[in-house]
Specification:
Blueprint (H helix, E strand, L loop, with lengths): L1 H7 L3 E4 L4 E4 L3 H14 L6 H17 L3
Helix pairs in contact: 2-3
Length: 66
């Protein structure tokens, strides 16, 4: 999981008993690093619809919509 931080140059890892979470909180990192990665390496299946929604929300946040 730490290699994700190294690769994207962003994010943090949070550990609990049940899971390890990789979280990116800066909108600039999401729109400039994370989203382009998954646009290049497409998500297949029903999760692609979730990703499309995620991209729309990220764009709204970037523009400052409320």
């Amino acid at each position: 999981m730490t290699s994700l931080i190294e690769y994207f140059g962003a994010g943090n890892i949070y550990k609990s008993r049940e899971a390890i979470d990789f979280i990116i909180t800066k909108i600039e990192d999401i729109t400039n690093k994370f989203i382009p990665f998954f646009e290049k390496y497409k998500i297949i299946g029903v999760k692609a619809l979730d990703f499309a929604d995620f991209c729309e929300v990220a764009e709204l946040v970037k523009k400052g919509a409320t």
